[in-house]
Amino acid sequence: MKKGKLLVFSAPSGSGKTTIVRHLLAQKELNLEFSISATSRAKRGEEIEGKDYYFLDTKSFKNKIKNDDFLEWEEVYRDNFYGTLKSEIERIWALGKNVIFDIDVSGGLRIKRNYPEKTLAIFVKPPSIDELKIRLKKRKTESEDKINMRVAKASAELATAPLFDEIVVNEILDDALTEAYNLVDTFINQNDNCE
Fold this sequence. Notes:
There is one protein chain. The protein is of the alpha/beta class. It is 41% helix and 22% strand. A 5-stranded parallel sheet has the order 2-7-1-8-9. It has a 4-stranded mixed sheet with strand order 4-3-6-5, with helices on both faces. Helix 5 runs antiparallel to helix 6 (144-158).
């Protein structure tokens, strides 16, 4: 079985990475499938098992960590875990597709470390911290305190940008979409000898 490529998109909250990932998923010629993360948190609202997340209780999640079932995982808050199951990557590769991730910075870098030749890690950067704050406020989904927390976290995340293969500055969305598409298309179509 030919293994596909791994396309990691990481960014501070509000940078537009989810918008970019959704756009790329809609481009059928790229042959992408979204990597569904596992989490130990409870379902929210209309979330669907196996579509939004794989929902595991904390004990099951910890057992999977012990069994080395994760490509990457993180305890975001106490007993609140998120991670990428190795079986999810195998599932997508078995479909003959390339895997695309919308993932936090540390998870993205761990995937790159595990599969250095097969992974293109792209950091989506806002034009500025001020613009990021404006975008987060426009969402109207979070309190001022939560926005300030995200902005503070963004500063630390921005410092990791040079560790990624590519940086896409999302100032004008159409330009960022085109740049991301071209990077992904080029990487997918490169011959590789790392089977």
